[in-house]
Design brief:
The complex is a heterodimer.
Chain A (H helix, E strand, L loop, with lengths): L20 H5 L15 E7 L5 E7 L1 H4 L4 E6 L29 E2 L5 E7 L2 H9 L2 E6 L6 H4 L15 E9 L2 H7 L2 E8 L12 E7 L4 E6 L4 H12 L6 E4 L15 H13 L3 E4 L2 H7 L6 E9 L5 E13 L12 H5 L9 E9 L13 H19 L3 H8 L8 E2 L5 E2 L4 H12 L1 H13 L3 E13 L5 E7 L5 E5 L8 H13 L6 E4 L17 H28 L6 E4 L2 E4 L2 E7 H8 L13 E6 L5 E13 L6 E11 L6 H20 L30 E6 L16 H18 L13 H13 L1
Parallel strand pairs in A: 1-12, 10-11, 14-15, 20-21, 27-28
Antiparallel strand pairs in A: 1-5, 2-4, 2-6, 3-5, 7-15, 8-13, 9-10, 9-12, 13-14, 16-17, 18-26, 19-20, 19-25, 22-23, 23-24, 26-27
Chain B lengths: L5 E7 L2 E7 L5 H8 L18 E4 L2 E4 L12 E3 L12 H8 L9 H14 L5 H7 L11 H20 L1
Parallel strand pairs in B: 1-5
Antiparallel strand pairs in B: 1-2, 3-4, 3-5
Classes of the chains: A alpha+beta, B alpha+beta.
The complex binds FE2/S2 (inorganic) cluster (2 copies).
One FE2/S2 (inorganic) cluster binds next to loops of chain B.
Chain lengths: 770, 164
């Protein structure tokens, strides 16, 4: 195992190569579709081709008679099986979410009938033969339009497209605006994007009727939560379901909830008494997996003439799509806590509204509301600087919350734990050679070239969202097993948790095995999303490790006939302080723990579980800088330089952290440059395959410099903050600001992402006409 | 929709395989379902993602874009055939060394594409690497470490040749 590290004694902070790689590199990974069981039945689904329609008839006769077909079901056959989702706001409107459509469909791709057959091909053939007659209904796809009077209804059954709203207000907003010298206004939309994990969704369920149990292999980010959600929807006891998240081929937020197909497959397996599997095709994944962003933001920033931010008003209209998944209403709520960004803003009003449309449901996608919040305040800061004729750096610096003000309570009543925004900004300026870049830009501009520099400085919450669990079990032979509720889908938890446990227990990493992703093997847990694992899973694991060490010291003291207070940790075990020859190793301690060797009054065993909740989020921060060039003839955008500086507290594995930044950045750049899920005015998705939807390729990636500063977080045992979303949250606003800077000589104020060549070309042409 | 099965003979990872297959069966499904070689993945339905890349008679091919019957008589290598015993292929080793994979779903296709590139161009620059990866999508890594890994593998392989 090769390592590079600053402190050679510590595994924490070492770029340890990943232990999960060998199987994945040799074709020995095991994703849901790789699980082989005898007698698997395959499911294919006939889906709506209409965005909004009453179903007049469903003819399944031909399908049912086709070779290999076991059965065909429609909504009427499975009765009132529905996807149950929690009500997150009082009075929230919640449309029905039947597992198979009953009476009507509200989005293209809504499931109408399911075919179960001996092979996937037979199931697909039969599903294609199903005939449905529809009575089309009016359609709405845009959330702001959906809230206008007289808009078509996304659901006939509801008399409104309004789902829920929430509000937060602090200080005296009206007074701040009345006293302002200038009010900067901006209306923006974040593009709807697709999570596009390379492994589409999939589920395999195996019933055990004799024992009344059910095992489910699910491509999920949180097996324990999935188990509870399946139990609720199926009406089957949670403790009789075992959910296994095998290797999971990416999720990025979209695999955090259970979906209709998951419930359907479990139901079919129980009904038929055989294992049943459904794997989404890529097109099905586009049509049914929760998508990201699609928020419209209308904001006003009140300023004094010297650039002091006085007050902020933000209204968000979020497109929730046609149906509610468990976290669909979540992302817009981020604006309630993040609207003020890094700035001293006490007079703030934020209102969010969720609206239904006849589109694919939205939900958390990498960043989950953070990217919109950062984009909003950082575009506002830049536009305000331009309005006032100020340097955008100066305006930001004038308004930063200062290091000595932490913990800082913002106008929306949220306490930021720590931060030093000048620190990451100055590091980003240094790495980007900012002053030179500005001089070069000015010269290029003299020559009539469209070149722009943009920055975004931001703070982002990570962790939070309930608890996480970790357990450390010292086996009889002294080997260590770690059980974590924080299951991985590519992030490298097996490596990092082994580093943490080995570091704490002072044993070789090879002696540690990490188990996750199986509700039977692991105590209750929450899962991986929202950049939470290092904070939450790491916090739980560190706490459990400390408890094990404390107990082991007591046992070691008993063995060495010393007071536990005199026992110190050594490499591989314990010794009496100052008497290194009086020592025991983990094997001896564990042996004693399980064989009546614990001190009087102490339970046997050496196995500690911790449930961790710091009751606050960890606030990371960073500064991103972009240099862009736009071809005035074609509108083509080139990112010439990109510098990312993130402060994420203590770094557990720099190699993995940097790669998380890379991955988040690629998804952020996808949103900024090319990705856009488009529905036409009739509600038809126009980008439902990889032929039409542009995800970044290797050649899309610009030259990138990743830097870091390290300010430990004071509120969790490892001093960490999350990093998984940093690149997604900070980079797109920097690019947006750079693009607007490049276009500023043309008098262009704002263009929404993604900055495709046709869009920028059109903006340049329009400006030329003016 | 059923058609009579057709006999095929394919060498896969050095082993002769005979089978009777439906004419419409894709090579990727033949490998995954008939032979149980599940290291080759399916990531799309429009031939864009490259997760299914294998070598057919020495060329990197998307196995979702070829029928199993078209592979009759061919020599196919999948990700399972790249390591020799426990010794990883230099490209596999490079992906671990340079952290070129996260969830691992795109990885088999990436490794097969990269290995083919290095056979035809042992000294590719970054542009040549990125060009070779045009047909392979990764959603986790941002490609940065994949490109690094391929460069690293190229160095290793040239070094090995020089010393052998
Ligand atoms: S499965 Fe996507 S290219 Fe073959
Ligand atoms: S490593 Fe996950 S898609 Fe490439």
């Amino acid at each position: 195992m090769s390592t590079e590290q600053s402190n050679p004694d510590s595994l924490i902070g070492a770029s340890v190569r990943r232990v999960e790689d060998p199987p994945l590199l040799t074709g020995k990974g095991c994703y849901v579709d790789d699980v082989k069981l005898p007698g698997i039945l395959h499911v294919a689904i006939h889906r709506s081709t209409h965005p909004h329609a009453r179903i007049l008839s469903v003819d399944t006769a031909e399908a049912a008679a086709m070779p290999g077909v076991e059965c065909v079901l429609t909504g009427d056959d499975i009765g009132d099986l529905v996807l149950r989702t929690p009500m997150v706001a009082p009075g929230m409107n919640m449309p029905d979410h039947p597992i198979l459509a009953r009476g009507a469909v509200h989005a293209v791709g809504a499931p109408i009938a399911a075919v179960v057959a001996e092979s996937a091909a037979a199931a697909q053939d039969a599903a294609a033969s199903i005939q449905v007659t529809y009575d089309s209904l009016p359609v709405v796809t845009d959330a702001e339009a959906a809230l206008e009077d007289g808009s078509p209804l996304a659901h006939e059954e509801l008399d409104t497209n309004f789902c829920y709203s929430m509000k937060r207000e602090g200080g005296d907003v009206d007074k701040a605006f009345a006293e302002a010298d200038h009010i900067c206004r901006l209306h923006m939309k974040s593009p709807r994007v697709v999570a596009m994990s390379m492994e589409a969704r999939g589920v395999l369920a195996q019933p055990d009727p004799a024992r009344n149990e059910l095992t489910v292999w699910l491509s999920t980010q949180g097996p324990h939560r999935a188990r509870a959600d399946l139990a609720n929807s199926l009406g089957f006891p949670e403790n009789r379901i075992r959910v296994i998240a095998p290797d999971v081929g990416g999720g990025f937020g979209s695999k955090g909830c259970v979906y209709r197909e998951d419930v359907l497959v479990c139901h079919l397996a129980q009904k038929l008494g055989r294992p049943v599997k459904w794997m989404a095709t890529r097109n099905e994944d586009f049509l049914t997996t929760c998508q990201g962003r699609d928020q419209a933001m209308t904001s006003e920033l009140a300023l004094s003439k010297d650039g002091k931010m006085l007050g902020l008003k933000v209204r968000v209209v979020a497109n929730l799509g046609a149906y509610l998944h468990s976290a669909t209403a979540g992302p817009p709520q981020r604006m309630l806590v993040m609207a003020p960004g890094c700035y001293q803003l006490q007079d703030v009003r934020v209102e969010i509204v969720g609206a239904f449309t006849n589109t694919v449901p939205t939900g958390p996608y990498r960043g989950a509301g953070r990217p919109e919040s950062v984009l909003n305040i950082e575009r506002l800061a830049d536009k305000a600087a331009r309005d006032l004729g100020m340097d955008p750096l100066e305006l930001r610096r004038k308004n930063y919350i200062q290091p000595d003000q932490f913990p800082y309570r913002t106008g929306v009543g949220v306490e930021y734990d720590s931060g030093d925004y000048e620190k990451s900004l100055s590091e980003a300026l240094r790495l980007s050679d900012y002053d030179q870049m500005i001089r070069d830009r000015d010269e290029a501009r003299q020559r009539g070239e469209l070149v722009g520099v943009g920055i975004s400085t931001f703070t982002e919450p990570s962790g939070g969202a309930g608890f996480e669990s970790g357990a450390v079990r010292v086996e009889r032979t002294g080997q260590i097993t770690v059980l974590t509720g924080s299951s991985s889908h590519g992030q490298g938890h097996e490596t990092v948790w082994a580093q943490v446990a080995a570091d704490k227990l002072k044993v070789p990493m090879e002696n540690v095995v990490v188990r996750h992703g199986d509700t039977t093997a692991v105590q209750q847990g929450t899962g991986t999303f929202g950049s939470r694992s290092a904070v939450m899973g790491g916090g739980a694991l560190a706490t459990a490790a400390d408890r094990v060490i404390a107990k082991a010291k007591a046992i070691a003291g008993n063995l060495m006939e010393a007071s536990p207070d005199d026992v110190v940790q050594t490499e591989g075990g314990f010794a009496v302080a100052g008497v290194p020859e009086r020592n025991v190793n983990w094997r001896q301690v564990a042996g004693a723990a399980y064989a009546k060797g614990t001190p009087a009054g102490m339970d046997p065993g050496l196995n500690e579980t911790a449930f961790f909740d710091p009751n606050r989020e960890a606030w990371g921060f960073g500064a991103h800088v972009a240099l862009v060039r736009i071809d005035p003839d074609t509108g083509e955008l080139t990112i010439e330089k990109l510098v990312l500086v993130d402060d994420i507290g203590v770094v557990l594995n720099p190699m993995i952290v940097e790669a998380q930044v890379h991955g988040g950045l690629a998804q952020g750049l996808g949103e900024a440059l090319c990705e856009h899920m488009v529905f036409d005015e009739n509600g038809q998705p126009r980008t439902g395959t990889l032929m039409d939807y542009a995800v970044p390729r290797a050649s899309t990636m610009p030259p990138v410099v990743v830097g870091e500063t390290e300010t430990p977080n004071p509120f969790n045992p490892l001093g960490v903050k999350g990093v998984g979303e940093a690149g997604t949250n900070g980079a797109p606003p920097a690019v947006a600001n750079a693009v607007m800077d490049a276009l500023s000589p043309l008098g262009i104020d704002h263009v929404d992402m993604p900055y495709t060549a046709p869009k920028l070309w059109r903006a340049i042409r329009e400006a030329g006409k003016g | 929709m059923e058609h009579p099965a057709l006999p095929i003979n394919v060498t896969v990872n050095g082993k002769a395989r005979a089978a009777e297959v439906e004419p419409r069966l894709l090579l990727v499904h033949f490998l995954r379902e008939n032979l149980g070689l599940t290291g080759t993945h399916v990531g799309c339905d429009t031939s864009q993602c490259g997760a299914c890349t294998v070598h057919v008679d020495g060329l990197a091919v998307k196995s979702c874009t070829m029928l199993a019957v078209q592979a009759d008589g061919a020599d196919v290598t999948t990700i399972e055939g790249m390591a020799e015993g426990t010794a990883l292929h230099p490209v596999q080793e490079a992906f671990q060394e340079q952290h070129g994979l996260q969830c691992g779903y795109c990885t088999p296709g990436m490794v097969m594409t990269a290995a083919h590139l290095l056979e035809t161009n042992p000294e590719p620059d970054d542009d040549a690497i990125k060009h070779a990866l045009e047909g392979n999508l990764c959603r986790c890594t941002g490609y940065i470490n994949i490109v690094k890994a391929i460069r690293w593998a190229a160095d290793q392989m040239r070094g090995q040749h020089a010393s052998s």
